[in-house]
Amino acid sequence: MLFRNVTSPFSPRPRSVAVGIGVLFFLAAVFLPALSAQADEPTVTAVLTSSETEVDRPVQLQIKITGDANAIPPNEITVDGLDIRYTGQSQLVEGRNFRFTYSFVYNYTILPLKAGTFTIPSQAIGSNNGTLRTPALTLNVAPNDDGTTTSRRGGGNSATDEKKIVFAELVVPKTSVYVGETIPAQIRIGINSRVPHRFIDLPNLSGQGFTSQRMPNPDQRLESIGGRTYEVVTLQTAITPVRSGKLEISAKDAKAIIQVPRRGGSRPRSPFDLFGMNDPFNDPFFNDAFAGVGEQKEVKFSSETTTIEVKPLPPNAPATFAGAVGNFSLATDVKPKTAQVGDPLTVTATISGRGNFDRVTAPTLEETRGWHTYPPGSNFKADDEIGVSGTKTFEMVVTPNEPKKAVPPLVFTFFNPLKEQYVTLKGDKVPVVVEGGTAPAATPAVASAGTPPPQPSARPTAAPQGSDILYQLTDHGGWGATFAPVFQQPVFWAAQAVPLLGLVGFFGWEMRRRRLANRAGQRIAAWENESAELERKLRRAGDPPDQYYAEALRVVQLKTALARQIEPNTVDAEIAVAAFDLPDEQRDRVRELFRRSDEVRYSGRPNGNSTVPEETRREVLDLINRLN
Amino acid sequence: MRAPFLILTVLLGLTTGSFAVPAAPVNAEATFAKANADYAAGKFSAAIAGYESLVQSRQWNPTLFYDLGNAYFRKGDPGRAILNYERALALDPNHAETRANLQLVRDQARALELAPGWVETRLGVLTRDQYAWLAVAAFWGAAAILCGLYFARRRAVVWIFALVLLGTISGAAAFAVYQLETGSAGAGLAIVTKKNIQARLATAESAGTVLLLPAGSEIKILSTRGEWSYAALPNDLRGWIPAQSAERVRL
């Protein structure tokens, strides 16, 4: 029995991660038993994934032992008519309020070999506290869809050759189906776990005349087959034949790399196997495997071809049959229950069961007189990974044209391959209260080609009932429609010119405003600098009067220009006086400054190094300081 | 300030001529009315000829393709009926009569449909063209905010958030347009018009088969080589089919 944890061959872990996981397992192994001292008594449960199955359809048995790491699960469970094989174990640690419990789950696959009711007897589990016993379980096995009461796999028809290193097999529950009937299929590939290996490609279904579902993530586990342990990858899918006749199908082109011994390197016979006994260490695969000098080899393997007889559906299908094959149930509901004539009612039809849900279409009203129906919307929720079983919900809007007391029952037809007949489900008549006057009758659908087309003014959007299409339309609404997407039409790009130009215009306008603002700012800054520089010069003694008054005048002009945002050279005495709120005395001083400046400038410089008296300079500076 | 107006005038002048809807010929209405009358009289071949002449002269509208689909259905050609229903829906995705008839004919013909991808399924709230307009509207909104932020003295957080939001919306809408355009109902969508076409692994009649396609089945043409088209098929399969056995929905 193998208690090895299975890792995915398609996602090899780095060494450091593997070491980390190893440490965690080690810590768990050390500490969990210590915690178990405070845990409850060990318990054991056993469950079947399904208590109902049919011949050749396997179910899983899980024995869960909680609170005892040393419990010994049964090696072998024998029930006549059932092939029970151990397939591996998993560990489960649960923590609640810092109390940890750990469980070991032991998995067994049960393959029914014949129909009947079987009891899986209570199993004894050896534990530290004595012997625990699993409950007895009952499994009901029905004949499979072929009516077969015994397994066809009992004769060893499997592609699994126990002496092979690798194997592939395609498992289908039945070999005689109807067109459109969806059957689950299982692809299994396995490699002897003692052979170092790595899977490269998973197999594909090969054949024609069928469609298959997308395969979900593969399941991988160790299985003991014929005394050897295989690493088995299982893929689930569903197959739907689309035409009658013989359907030949196989799982092809699985690829793996295995490590095999080098040729010519045969090892001498094991000293432990002197008498030709079955010494495991004398296995050819171990000739070089321990030395790690094996040779890598790519192997490609396929399953045997499975032939499925596909029968056509019986003729004379009901008019409401739309291709659904399987076994379904129908439930209906209507909301709201009270409405006025012309108000929409939402009819919900829920179709549950097992079959080809992609061909399950909306049920139709049994009686459409006085009702408008609209195309329904649908939603499918699968119960399994391959979409064979689930629930498809249709929501359709109907509007009453006249007072009504109930919504007519919905009708849904499918072909039941077990009963080999068409089954028409009829929902319940749902009572509603529809009040109000009679609405104008909708234009009926064209039942035959000879009837005249309806008037364009009446354009009901009723869904077709039965098997005929709706009427011709004569109101076309104008010519010149185009298939080109809007972004391939010139008008679309022309329209972009409007915001583009707006944005470019805004950008340009803002840039220009900024540039102008910047130019004025530079000019003002220059005036301020010049004014400050001149004021500093005026505070220093030594300049001749003509230069001193010229500089003082310039400062007044600059300050006036800054105050009025005008050119300094255009400033005269009156403009300067008017620019500032000055007392009369100061105004006279301003005028005097202009007069003295003109006088000095035009009368010529006096001889000698005359300077402006200190008192005059102070008065001028005081005047300038007031010009703010 | 004259330059923007000049550019706008030139652009409009260049584009007006190219996107102006051509006026319907005088006899388009008459041809359509006659085809309808032929249909009502049970002369489906004559009706098909009338409708097809309008299609050839690029006088299109959803009703024309819907009526043409009906005529093909009456003639017993479900493949072309489905093709024309799909064309009507390509022009008007909300054409209720077309949806109803397409569903019925598809069920009768057991035509296979392409399953939309996960992303495509969730993009169904708007049409491809609506996403395109949303993308450009959000783009220009983001551009305007960016421009305003460029010149603003103080950049408020709310405007930066609006910029990021509109930029994200624009990018997401453009992604949606791409997904819808390249998805199962995009430019490559085609309908098998011949009966029971075998999709093959290679461009030869003797090549292995992939899938049997009933008339009216949806495929997505990925490339064409000579007389063969490589297409995405229902059930996530791919294969080669004779190019003449399918027609693109978009004309």
Measured by residues with Cβ under 8 Å of the partner chain's Cβ, the largest interface is: A-B, 65 and 73 residues
Helix and strand run of chain B: HHHHHHHHHEEEEEEE
- Walk across the major sheet of chain B and give the strand order: 6-5-4-1-7
CATH topology of the largest domain in chain A: Immunoglobulin-like
How many domains of chain A? The number is 4
How many separate domains of chain B?
3
Structural features, described:
The complex is a heterodimer of chains A (628) and B (251). Chain A is an alpha+beta fold. Chain A folds into four domains: 15-142, Immunoglobulin-like; 166-269 and 280-309, Immunoglobulin-like; 321-435, Immunoglobulins (Immunoglobulin-like); 515-626. Chain A is built from six helices and 32 strands. In chain A, α2 (490-539) packs antiparallel against α3, α3 (545-564) packs across α5 (584-603) and α4 runs antiparallel to α5 (584-603). Chain B is built from nine helices and seven strands; from the N terminus they run αααααααααβββββββ. Chain B has a five-stranded antiparallel beta sheet with strand order 6-5-4-1-7. In chain B, β4 (218-225) and β5 (228-233) form a beta hairpin. Chain B starts with a helix and ends with a strand. Residues 1-23 of chain B have low confidence and may be disordered. Chains A and B meet through α2 of A and α1, α2, α4, α5 and α6 of B.
SSE topology:
The complex is a heterodimer of chains A (628) and B (251).
Chain A (H helix, E strand, L loop, with lengths): L14 H22 L6 E6 L3 E3 L4 E8 L15 E15 L2 E14 L3 E5 L3 E4 L2 E4 L3 E6 L23 E6 L4 E3 L4 E10 L4 E5 L2 E3 L3 E3 L6 E7 L2 E14 L3 E8 L1 E7 L34 E7 L4 E6 L9 E15 L2 E3 L4 E11 L8 E2 L5 E3 L3 E6 L6 E12 L3 E4 L2 E7 L4 E6 L3 E6 L54 H50 L5 H20 L8 H7 L4 H20 L10 H13 L2
Parallel strand pairs in A: 2-9, 11-21, 22-30, 23-32
Antiparallel strand pairs in A: 1-3, 3-5, 4-5, 6-9, 7-8, 10-12, 12-17, 13-19, 14-18, 15-17, 16-17, 18-21, 19-20, 22-24, 24-28, 25-30, 26-28, 27-28, 29-32, 30-31
Helix pairs in contact in A: 2-3, 3-5, 4-5
Chain B lengths: L1 H18 L6 H15 L3 H13 L5 H13 L3 H14 L4 H14 L8 H5 L5 H24 L5 H26 L6 E4 L4 E4 L8 E5 L4 E8 L2 E6 L3 E6 L3 E3 L3
Antiparallel strand pairs in B: 1-4, 1-7, 2-3, 4-5, 5-6
Helix pairs in contact in B: 2-3, 3-4, 4-5, 5-6, 8-9
